[in-house]
Amino acid sequence: MSSNTSSASLHILVIVASTRPGRLAPAITDWFVRATLPETADRGITVDIADLADIGLPLLDEPEHPASGHYLHQHTRAWSRRVAAADAFVIVTPEYNYGMPAVLKNAVDFLYQEWAWKPVAFVSYGNTSAGTRSVQMTKQVVTTLKMMPIGATVALRIADSIRDGQVVESTRLDEAARAMLRELTRVASVMRSLRTDTDTDAGDGVAGPVDGLSLARAHADDLAELLVLQRCCWVQEALANDTLDLQPLRETLDDLRASLSTWQVWCVRRNGRLVAAVRARDHAGTWLIGRLMVAPDQTGNGIGSWLLSYVEQQAPAGVARYDLFTGHRSTRNIELYERAGYALTTTGGTPDGSVHLTKPRQRAA
In terms of Cα–Cα distance, which of 170, 178, 214, 171 is closest to 196? Predict the structure, then answer.
């Protein structure tokens, strides 16, 4: 939830939306990247090219709805990480029969939350309409996912703009590409706050036990801070349990990024500083709660209990119980969970040195 809205740290994903043999999309993508290099280099913008032909997503094969964020397949998790990391998108697309390519529709449909509150620009190409009808169809799809198509576009009519499989040298086209990028980054900088401080889907209006707290769903911008907080908190766990062999201490930034595709993660900030976090997911009717952490200098003021209560309330309707694990010597954690109504299922530790606690979900009368 970085408050930095400058374009210097923006990350743009350029999606190559054609897989047809002999396609023009890679050459047009290369031209766009070259033409906009003066802008991206000057502003420190990073560009990632996602060629759907190389990514090779199958027809949508996830058993759960994309809005759940629960992905069974590794190809979906990898696609989720790339899309989640982006602040904005440029889609390079042809037009097929008055519409968008099926491979593009499929790639969009695989995900949900990862697209939200991000702008998208288009470089289209085709014959009669220069691909603009593909763009119009795609705009209808992406706005449903809370994406914002910007006004500026680049439309290449093949007969006028392509020679020998390459985009013709044109100062006018190059400047059109740079102008579109400037508009895209300007909108992306403003929209970043919609994914952070004003995330109305997670924690908006939830009163905390101390002043200055804000609660929101985690985003890619939070991950570096979250990793630091996690290691600080689990050092204490390592000391209490006399072991450094703890998964939270071994995790990398890429591991945390991957977890956003399988877990719902919430972050708590106090006056802008990340001070607590928790994650949860539904597993066959059980709400698994994990990585509940509070910065060492913020413990003792009720943030942990408050956050635990909040994450329990986020469980979907079909959940019958809450489950969590902690170190078998983590007496403070065990006491907190028992005060919240959890019960130990065993008195000794499991093979990995943890204990399992569970709590039935109370149904309203």
Answer: 214
Helix (H, G, I), strand (E, B) or coil at 46: strand
C-beta atoms surrounding 335 within 10 Å? 10
Residue-wise DSSP of 1-33:
-----SGGG-EEEEEE----TT-SHHHHHHHHH
Task: Indicate the DSSP class of residue 362.
Answer: P
Residue pair 272/3 in contact (Cβ under 8 Å)? The answer is yes
Residue in this structure with the two tokens 């509070």, named with its chain if needed: 294
Residue 221 binned pLDDT confidence (cut-offs 50, 70, 90):
confident
- The residue behind tokens 């019958």 is 320
* Lateral strand order in the sheet of 321-327: 213-217, 264-270, 273-283, 286-294, 321-327, 354-360, 343-344
- SS percent in the chain: helix, strand, coil, step 5: 40, 25, 35
SS (HEC) of 119-154: EEEEEEEECCCCCHHHHHHHHHHHHHCCCEECCCCE
Q: Which domains does the chain have, with CATH numbers?
A: 7-195 (3.40.50.360), 213-360 (3.40.630.30)
Q: What is the CA radius of gyration of the chain?
A: 23
- Please provide residue 44's backbone torsions phi and psi, each rounded to the nearest 5 degrees: 70, 25
Q: How far is CA 67 from CA 220, 252, 261, in A?
A: 17, 26, 11
Q: How many CA atoms lie within 13 A of 46 on its CB side?
A: 8
Go through 165-202 and write b for each residue having 16 or more CB atoms within 10 A of its CB, e for each that does not.
eebeeeeebbebbbebbebbbebbbebbeebbeebeeb
Mean pLDDT of the chain: 87
How much is the pTM? Answer: 0.58
What are residue 58's phi and psi, to 5 degrees? -75, 175
